[in-house]
């Protein structure tokens, strides 16, 4: 990703303002989502398969060759190089014409714009992952058919639930032996209380993936509407050809295998597992699709489901509880700040998601937190095939802003009508470590670095009088965040901090009245976070339960929990 030349047009402020209708229809055709999964469930493979179906790339497989996998980030960069498409580590945007939707409505093409926002993979699993979920309108929960629900998927799912993000479930790797479909659904229902409502049911057990039975909706609930039979392509490199067959022909072709699938589909209806759009949007049910990202089976169905069922960008509530409608003047929320993407420039890139109005590159916007103007002449995206700069972006789109030093996750940008969105909640940290300056002579630099990384939200910084300022405590969702702190302090501030793990495992919100008593307890220490919130760190959950039982009057409230 390179910085565009300064000579690029800066006169877009003069452009004709977009009509409210235009913004609304641009918002309506957008779907902004993330894939939540445990490492190895197939997120990179699926991303590539989605790009293949959207015709962004012509062949899958070249990137994720047989010789092992790289991280998603580098896959996307490789993709960018290999195919000349424009991808960033943060968002992939493509047009998609659903085969289900009418080709045009009132003479307007019904091509959808899909924004796939990347969640960092396991190697840099951290609070960033959660923040990304504040930028999407829906999530695809990708599950390995053999492994079922795995820890990271569960954590991310809880965040979706907390934020009210509707979830579409994709059971991947159906081409390999795995659990039975009913077992997988039971697990989802029982462990996370989400009712799975399959839209497509597999024909053939895991390991013998022949195709999908499309289940009827509404008045046709429980019926097998059609059989979509897939044909493998060499190495799964191309879109898998589909035959659409009637249930009668399906029975002739597949015999008992079809009959079994049809019977199971009826069983699901008998237990109320049919899609209901309202319950899905309310986060109570989840449409399910069985797929093989590797063979490109079921991938088109995932895209069509996103288009048909996932919500488009909608109004967002501001801090004063008034809605910012999609056709209000431009506003956006910063959800991620990335430093040092371009090693030559040591830049900082802030990614924002457009909430309302039209973003035009060159616009001067207001940074709500400081009230200061911010010039966006270096706005980058990902968008389409043009890998240059972004000219326009609409609600749901993601734009990267270069050298945005004042911007931090949760910040608001706007024009005209003032707005400030609520801050991104910081998630319950589970890892704690003491940060020490290597020597007193570097203390000033150390302090500066700590403040900067704290304000960027790289880790949460906690202090108390006992430990003093020279050894603050870092709190993080994932331990990788500590390594990021160490690496950045070294690279950007020339200080080499010492990091010592601290033996606490939980954080609870407390108050001044409870502090003295809590500090008297074994395995507990109270700290103040830089936003003023008092946090009690506790050694383990048994200790916490004990204190809650013995001293019920003390305030110990859960933070937004990741687990
Ligand atoms: P990520 O860590 O979630 O991004 O997972 P990857 O996309 O890197 O996939 C992990 C491994 O699973 C790789 O070896 C993939 O080739 C393999 N894989 C992904 N999807 C499928 C699938 O649908 N079927 C099979 N058999 N293997 C798959």
From TrEMBL:
* Comp. bias regions, Polar residues: 1-22
Q: Which SUPFAM superfamilies does its entry note?
A: EF-G C-terminal domain-like, P-loop containing nucleoside triphosphate hydrolases, Translation proteins
Binding of GTP, residues: 118-122
Q: According to the UniProt entry, where is the signal peptide?
A: none
Question: Matching Gene3D superfamilies, A to Z?
Answer: P-loop containing nucleotide triphosphate hydrolases, Peptide chain release factor 3, domain III, Translation factors
Transmembrane parts of this sequence: none
Task: List the subcellular locations.
Answer: Cytoplasm
Domain (Tr-type G): give its ranges: 28-314
Q: Which Pfam families match?
A: EF-G_D2 (PF22042), GTP_EFTU (PF00009), RF3_C (PF16658)
* Keywords linked to the UniProt accession: Cytoplasm, GTP-binding, Nucleotide-binding, Protein biosynthesis
User: Is Cytoplasm given among the entry's keywords?
Assistant: yes
Which region ranges are annotated with the description Disordered? 1-26
Instruction: Tell me where on the tree of life, at the top rank, the source sits.
Output: Bacteria
Its job: Increases the formation of ribosomal termination complexes and stimulates activities of RF-1 and RF-2. It binds guanine nucleotides and has strong preference for UGA stop codons. It may interact directly with the ribosome. The stimulation of RF-1 and RF-2 is significantly reduced by GTP and GDP, but not by GMP.
* Family named by the database record: Belongs to the TRAFAC class translation factor GTPase superfamily. Classic translation factor GTPase family. PrfC subfamily.
Q: What HAMAP family does the annotation carry?
A: Rel_fac_3
Q: What is this protein called?
A: Peptide chain release factor 3
Native species? Rhodococcus artemisiae
């Amino acid at each position: 990703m390179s910085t565009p030349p300064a000579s690029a047009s800066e006169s877009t402020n003069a452009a004709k303002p977009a009509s409210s209708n235009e913004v609304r229809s641009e918002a309506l055709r957008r779907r902004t989502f993330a894939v939540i999964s445990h490492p190895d469930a197939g997120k990179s493979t699926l991303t590539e398969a989605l790009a293949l179906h959207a015709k962004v790339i012509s062949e899958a497989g070249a990137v994720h060759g047989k010789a092992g996998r790289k991280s998603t980030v580098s896959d996307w960069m490789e993709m960018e190089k290999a195919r000349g498409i424009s991808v960033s580590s943060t968002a992939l945007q493509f047009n998609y014409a659903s085969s289900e939707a009418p080709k045009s409505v009132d003479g307007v093409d019904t091509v959808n714009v899909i924004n796939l926002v990347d969640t960092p993979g396991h190697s840099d699993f951290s609070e960033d992952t959660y923040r990304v979920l504040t930028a999407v309108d829906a999530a695809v929960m990708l599950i390995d058919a053999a492994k079922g629900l795995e820890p990271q998927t569960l954590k991310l799912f809880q965040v979706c639930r907390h934020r009210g993000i509707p979830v579409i479930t994709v059971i991947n790797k159906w081409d390999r032996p795995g659990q039975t479909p009913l077992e997988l659904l039971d697990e989802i229902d029982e462990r996370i209380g989400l009712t799975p409502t399959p839209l497509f049911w597999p024909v053939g057990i895991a390991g013998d993936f022949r195709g999908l039975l499309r289940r009827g909706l509404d008045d046709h609930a429980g019926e097998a509407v059609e059989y979509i039979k897939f044909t493998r392509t060499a190495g799964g490199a191309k879109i898998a050809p589909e035959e659409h067959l009637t249930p009668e022909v399906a029975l002739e072709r597949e015999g008992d295998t079809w009959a079994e699938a049809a019977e199971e589909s009826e069983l699901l209806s008998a237990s109320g597992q049919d899609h209901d759009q309202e319950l899905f949007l309310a986060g109570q049910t989840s449409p399910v699709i069985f797929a093989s990202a590797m063979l490109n089976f079921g991938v088109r169905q995932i895209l069509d489901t996103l288009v048909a069922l996932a919500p488009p960008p909608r109004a967002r509530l501001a801090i004063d509880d008034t809605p910012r409608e999609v056709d209000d003047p431009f506003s956006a929320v910063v959800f991620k700040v990335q430093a040092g993407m371009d090693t030559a420039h040591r830049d900082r890139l802030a990614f924002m998601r457009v909430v309302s109005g039209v973003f035009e590159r060159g616009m001067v916007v207001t940074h709500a937190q400081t009230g200061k103007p911010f010039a966006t002449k270096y706005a980058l995206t990902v968008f389409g095939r043009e890998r240059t700069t972004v000219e326009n972006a609409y609600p749901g789109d993601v734009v990267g802003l270069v050298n945005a030093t004042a911007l931090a996750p949760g910040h608001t940008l706007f024009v005209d009508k003032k707005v400030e969105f609520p801050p991104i909640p910081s998630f319950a940290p589970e890892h704690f470590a003491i940060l020490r300056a290597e020597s007193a002579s570097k203390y000033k630099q150390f302090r500066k670095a700590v403040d900067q990384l704290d304000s960027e939200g790289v880790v949460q910084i906690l202090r108390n009088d006992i430990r003093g300022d020279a050894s603050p405590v870092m709190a993080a969702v994932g331990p990788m965040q500590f390594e990021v702190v160490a690496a950045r302090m070294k690279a950007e501030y020339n200080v080499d901090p010492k990091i010592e793990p601290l033996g606490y495992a939980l954080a609870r919100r407390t108050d001044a009245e409870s502090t003295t008593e809590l500090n008297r307890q074994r395995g507990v220490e109270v700290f103040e976070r830089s936003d003023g919130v008092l946090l009690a760190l506790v050694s383990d959950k048994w200790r916490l339960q004990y204190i809650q039982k013995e001293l019920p009057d003390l305030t110990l409230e859960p933070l937004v929990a990741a687990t």
